[in-house]
Amino acid sequence: MPNPQLDGRIIGGIPANIIEVPYQVSIQNRGGHVCGGSVIHQSYILTAAHCLKDESISKLIIRAGSRFINKEGTTKRVCSAIKHANYKDEEDDYDYDVAILKAHSFQLCQDLVFNQTIMPIALPEYDEMVKVGTSALVSGWGYTNKEECISTSLQKVALAITNQTICRARYKDLGRLTGRMICAGCKRGVCDACQGDSGGPLVANGKLVGIVSWGYGCAVKDYPGVYSRVAKFRKWIRTKIRY
């Protein structure tokens, strides 16, 4: 059976207005979209650690406040990045897939200016649970179908939080599902996040509950997407940015 893959596209979604998801940003390298991310503070973006693999931090920028990856909104340099120390960058092990990008460093970079198109997303408390079946919104610029073509316009799709025991059983032969992960998908198997959406937000009840991480294929029936569970990293985030 094929290996699971790092995630990144919105399949089965619809166009999104940035005002609906003002916390969404595009992380870019030389104008090309690399990953999604979420504004959690005027100086900080939360994303997936795997998004930083093989990337030169000094060449990264974020585009915020726009539904497009190539125009409008505002762009800011990424000044530094913090990957979780336990993330291994190894195939078949996507645990601790979380990172913080800093978009401000004294005179080198500038904070984001909040307005109706750029706003932080609330974070859950440590170990805060999300009920199975809860509606959750994922957004991004990833592939919109099974052809490998990045969307230039922001997409969104509503998913439902999946039972962790069932999700673990689905992935038992494909990858290690830990308590630091959360699953979400749709019963029809035609909506999901995939390539290009990695690092982006999964939001439920007004809080950032997940970070797009990995899965088996994209929108494959019976295989929900797997996300880093933000509630498990709340203490880590607080120690790194005092927020």
TrEMBL record:
The Peptidase S1 domain, residue ranges: 10-242
One of the protein's GO biological processes: proteolysis
CDD domains linked to this entry: Tryp_SPc (cd00190)
InterPro entries: Peptidase_S1, Peptidase_S1_PA, Peptidase_S1_PA_chymotrypsin, Peptidase_S1A, Trypsin_dom, TRYPSIN_HIS, TRYPSIN_SER
Domain of life: Eukaryota
Protein name: Trypsin domain containing protein
Keyword Disulfide bond: yes
Source organism per UniProt: Asbolus verrucosus (Desert ironclad beetle)
MF (Gene Ontology): serine-type endopeptidase activity
Keywords: Disulfide bond, Hydrolase, Protease, Serine protease, Signal, Zymogen
Protein family membership: Belongs to the peptidase S1 family.
